[in-house]
Design a protein that fits this description.
The chain is built from four helices and five strands, in the order H-H-E-E-H-E-H-E-E. It is α+β, with helices and mostly antiparallel strands. The protein has two domains: 70 residues; 106 residues, Alpha-Beta Plaits (2-Layer Sandwich). Strands 1, 2, 3, 4 and 5 form a five-stranded antiparallel beta sheet that branches. Helix 2 packs across helix 4. Keywords: Coiled coil.
Length: 200
Amino acid sequence: MTRPPFAVLKLPLLLLLAALVLAGAGTLWGLSQATRARAELLQQQTAVNQARQQLDRSRQQQQIIASHLADYRALAAHGFVGEEDRLAWIEAVQLANRDAGLYGLTYRLTPRTPAPAVLAQGLPLGQTRMTLTLPLLVETDLLRFLEALKARAPGMVRVQGCQLSRLDAATADDASRPHLRAQCDLLWFTVATAAGGRHE
């Protein structure tokens, strides 16, 4: 029995082995490249989906803004949105006092504070307390004043409460002079904008 000529087959066998190793390495490299390409494709698809979702949200927000822009502008023009306009509030109570034919008033404003969360409902809603002291001839003068203020008030104001008290007995004899004093607490509400959004 003759032995196969290993010396002659040595080179072809080495070449075959090298070809197999190269083919295996090429296959593994191709598989890793395909896996990497799939991962990159998945990443790109995720990025595209996120961009589409963000675009959809932006379009929805744009539609919401467009549908409510007129209301927002009306609230801003009325003094409810934006910086608090204390001067307009003071002017409104003074004009309401004049319209009601009363005898003057004194006022005190406190710094703006955040409104209670139940009222704010997530908005940057602030409230400013104004305490008014008004001399009155009769109780109905207060109602006339509050009606006049309602007609004149810029923005959103709520009467938190009023207390009536009698003035000195010495003035009670004069029917043309105020006999009562009203002390009322008003709350002025404003929604801060992004530009002027801090509570003072």
